[in-house]
Amino acid sequence: MEISVTVNGGARTADVEPRMLLAHVIREEFGLTGTHVGCDTTSCGACTVLLDGSPVKSCTMFGVQADGREVTTVEGLADAAGLHPVQAAFQEEHGLQCGFCTPGMMLVGSALLERNPDPSDDDIRWAISGNLCRCTGYMNIVKAIQAAAKTKAEAAQAAAASA
Amino acid sequence: MLPSRFDYHRASSIDEALSILDQYGEDAKVLAGGQSLIPLMKLRFAAPAHLIDINPISGLDSIEERDGYLAIGALVRHHQLASSEPIAKGYPTLAAAAPQIADPIVRNLGTTGGSLAHADPAGDLGSVMLSMGASVLLRSSAGERVVPIGEFLVDTFTTSITPNELLTEIRVPTPPPRSGGTYLKLERKVGDFATVAVAVTLSLEDGAVGGAGIALTGVGLKNIEAAEAAASLRGAAPTDEAFAEAGHLAAAASNPVSDVRGTDTYKRHMVEVYTRRGLATASAMAAG
Lengths: 163, 288
Fold this sequence. Notes:
The structure holds 2 protein chains of 2 kinds. By secondary structure, chain A is of the alpha+beta class. Chain A has helices at about 20-30, 85-90, 100-115, 120-125, 140-160; strands at about 1-5, 10-15, 50, 55, 70. Helices cover about 35% and strands about 15% of the residues of chain A. In chain A, strands 2-1-5-3-4 form a 5-stranded mixed sheet, with helices on both faces. In chain A, helix 2 (about 85-90) crosses helix 5 and helix 3 (about 100-115) crosses helix 5 (about 140-160). Chain A starts with a strand and ends with a helix. Chain B folds into 3 domains: about 5-55, Uridine Diphospho-n-acetylenolpyruvylglucosamine Reductase, domain 2 (2-Layer Sandwich); about 65-175, Uridine Diphospho-n-acetylenolpyruvylglucosamine Reductase, domain 3 (2-Layer Sandwich), CATH 3.30.465; about 180-285, CO dehydrogenase flavoprotein, C-terminal domain (Enolase-like, domain 1). Chain B contains 12 helices and 14 strands. Chain B has helices spanning about 15-25, 35-40, 80-85, 85-90, 90-95, 105, 110-120, 125-130, 150, 225-235, 240-255, 265-285, and strands spanning about 5-10, 30, 50-55, 65, 70-75, 135-140, 145-150, 155, 160, 165-175, 180-185, 195-205, 210-215, 225. In chain B, strands 4-5-10-6-7 form a 5-stranded antiparallel sheet. In chain B, a hairpin with a 2-residue loop joins strand 12 (about 195-205) and strand 13. Chains A and B meet through strand 4 of A and strand 1, helix 2 and helix 6 of B.
């Protein structure tokens, strides 16, 4: 079945079997291997992508369901100006060790900051409660998302001051 | 993991979905949020030959206050329940349960109708709806019928829906004034199935308990309505003793099995504790 999906801002098409999961379509048809398949049972959140801006587990949705919709993967976070504030903060605050859960964590973190620019630690822990990390103990992930919130707030302030 | 092959049908209206159901009957499954069905298909516990995607149908994703009840469209996502103003204001049992369903990412896709039609004994919404006396609206090309949730949930993964029917709406009676309710869930971690959970809905009338509904999650072959426990409260003074007695009756109505989440004795005990605590919370809320 022919599908058209806006992936990281660009139009993509693919001819997929209906039983192909969105995670497979992203990795194998679109070649974007930053979307990781972890548990494959809707538990770990490693395969999280943004569907029209909201986090979803791409191992628990068929690719054909994404037809006509907008998907953001970890590859879509950075832009021409450089890393997304969440990505920069994960690097700076050591928000990752093995890196397997990191794409999902960063996408959930970026979606949270769109909705809630000034989250408490509890808000962050709540938001990432569908994502498992077996390395960090979560401390530095929470710190990284806090740091990104601060960077974004400072950038918004600077933009307002220069406007 | 890949599911077995199936034919994918995209329904853009209720009538279209119903006509596809008429055509394929038991060989078809309806795809709503997919957060339970897709994992089952990947494990090949479910292998429908035809999958009818109802997500494109508009008008099934609204929460509407009507005369005497709240109408929840079958495609209302769990995160919508958790952020709905009418629910936060007037339907405390549902408001308490919604943010505890699965995890935040699953709540973005999982639906109210899908969760009920899946009829998992560990499902949260079945108990909420039993405690609140809700009904479901089932439509077919021949007409529609309203079925009380207690008659809808028949057994593990089994409901009274027929192969040509579609669940389109959930109707939750508006609680009387001076009502309270809550949902207490014991889980090992976010996203795990409940070890035990208890839904409690209660109203006060002239200082006594007017109506009460108690239902249990994860401790039997389906969501269990603890009818005797609820009946023991009607007309009684809302005291700790009355709540303790209802807790005993609720524990007696449960039928848990020992597994990795705990022993049957532990689970039965937790039903008692959570029923008692839930009733105290609901009663304090109703006394306002």
